[in-house]
Amino acid sequence: MNGVFITGSNTEVGKTTVAVEIIKRLSEKRHVKVRKPVETNCELVDGSYVPKDAIALNKACRSNEALTIVCPNCFALEASPEEASASIGKPLSLDDLVRACNDDIGNSFVFVEGAGGLYSPIAERSLNSDLAARLHLPVIIVVRDELGAVCQGLLAIEAAKKNNLKIVCLVLNEINSNTLFNKESLAAYTDVPILPFSTDSLEFFYSEIESLI
Fold this sequence. Notes:
The chain is α/β, with parallel strands linked by helices and 213 residues long. Helices cover 38% and strands 24% of the residues. It has one domain: P-loop containing nucleotide triphosphate hydrolases (Rossmann fold).
């Protein structure tokens, strides 16, 4: 599989927001397909679950695939995919997610978004790190740019390296404006590229991310 796996240092770090911008840019020059193999906290609308993140990813992509291919596993419970699937008696296996990510990808560049952080449970007895490893994809790690980001970032980098995952970069997502020096602090402790992300620096971000993927 040719592509990349995007994950976070935790939940609610804005990885879908970052992923959408990367996908938009990559789709201008490459044939990109997106996969969000499982999503929780989905709303039931007219008898179908609505995976909000998967919809956003699919809209950013130009492949116009059916949502059932992009995100075949949707659950209502706001919990890890492992817990959400088990709660309705339909536990997901790692093999299920691998098949979902490989479904009808052809020679496309595949952008896969996980659920939560690298060590978040994503299937029965399986973590996001296990899925990235099975797919043989390099990872983009998104960290919320706030107090504590250095610790979170370094722990996520350590987890990726422990699982023999190639790291494309670490993205510092500035959700709320701050005067911290997290980029400089992280760079002092790792050789992983550190990219700042905010609505004010998109062109710089685009040029940097394109050079790495």
